[in-house]
Amino acid sequence: MHTSWGELEVSDAHVHFLSHRFFALLGGQLHPPLQPEAVCAQIGCTCPPGSPEELAQAWAAELDRHHVHHSTLIASLPEDIDSVTRALAAAPGRFTGFFMANPMAPGAIETAREAIGNGLRGLALFPAMHRYPVHDDRAMTLIAEAAATPKCAVFVHCGALSVGVRKKLGLPSPFDMRFSNPIDLHSVALKFPHTPFIVPHFGAGYFREALMLADLCENVYLDTSSSNSWNRYQPDHPDLTTIFRRTLAVTGPRRLLFGTDSSFFPRGWHKAIFDQQSEALWQAGIQKHDAELILGGNLRRLFLSTVPEISP
């Protein structure tokens, strides 16, 4: 992709795979229930094709259109893991699969083992959504399963959590922010020092705490995804350039993962987020080699076996 630094190989660490089944599951939570097409019409997006394979090809074409080399695909409900598994099979090497897991649900460990066995490489935990401390024994069992698998990461959503699709549908979101502090990850990340832990959105409001965590744990990565409107919670309301500078002072360029939080069509890949973040990095004075790492190289190094480790 053409950038301010010239041509770079860009990859996206944060894309939600909102499948036909995802919308069917949401529609089933409404009273009366709605079909996926009606759910999509209500929230103003295009209803995805019936098969995950078709949606995977649509995402591959969309990323090609924007010259994006690789991306994650995140199964955004624990009951929709199979959609991402099928998407990976439909486009080999194009995506890395993450799956949402609820450690409190019956059979969670069996579900996680199956997902990892089928090639998914990101265990996505949402402690505030499912109301548990990340160091709960049941969560730790899932984390240990991921940690035992090469090139497998643990993604933990911290900070403010709002699911726009649920809000538009009027579905309740009984989340509990007592379980959303990145500091809770400290002892967990230390216990699994060779496993990458990814905290999205710079901690989504817990910016100071996310930086403290990353400073203390060299296996913690921060993803840059979304508009990062959480900055309004900060006393000095830092702009994105300031956020990048402060983060890089702690993590360096090797532990930042560019992401957009893209999710639905017709918007598709959220290029406006890329434009904002690449401009902020440029204004921060990032050199080309570091931009290559942040905008894609780090993600590929973590998950693609063909990418060699880069010496510090």
Structural write-up:
There is one protein chain. With 312 residues, the protein is α/β, with parallel strands linked by helices. The protein has helices spanning 20-27, 36-43, 52-65, 81-90, 108-117, 127-130, 137-147, 164-169, 186-191, 207-216, 240-251, 271-283, 288-303, and strands spanning 2-3, 6-7, 10-12, 16-17, 68-75, 95-101, 122-125, 153-156, 197-199, 220-223, 256-257. Strands 3, 4, 5, 6, 7, 8, 9, 10 and 11 form a nine-stranded parallel sheet that branches. A two-stranded antiparallel sheet has the order 1-2. Strand 5, helix 4 (81-90) and strand 6 (95-101) form a beta-alpha-beta unit. Helix 3 (52-65) crosses helix 4 and helix 5 runs parallel beside helix 7. The protein is globular and about 50 Å long. The two termini are 24 Å apart. Residues 307-312 have low confidence and may be disordered.
Give the arrangement of secondary structure elements.
Layout: E1 2-3, E2 6-7, E3 10-12, E4 16-17, H1 20-27, H2 36-43, H3 52-65, E5 68-75, H4 81-90, E6 95-101, H5 108-117, E7 122-125, H6 127-130, H7 137-147, E8 153-156, H8 164-169, H9 186-191, E9 197-199, H10 207-216, E10 220-223, H11 240-251, E11 256-257, H12 271-283, H13 288-303
Our count of helices gives 13
Beta-strand content bin: 5-15%
**Class, according to the CATH hierarchy?**
Alpha Beta
Uncertain residue segments: 307-312
Helix/sheet category = alpha/beta
- What is the CA-CA span between the terminal residues? 24 Å
Helix content: 40-55%
What characteristic shape results from the CA principal axes? globular
The CATH topology name reads TIM Barrel
N-to-C series of helices and strands: EEEEHHHEHEHEHHEHHEHEHEHH
Number of domains: 1
Radius of gyration: 18 Å
How many runs of DSSP E, i.e. beta strands? 11
CATH superfamily: Metal-dependent hydrolases
Largest sheet: 9 strands, parallel
CATH architecture: Alpha-Beta Barrel
What is the arithmetic mean of pLDDT? 96
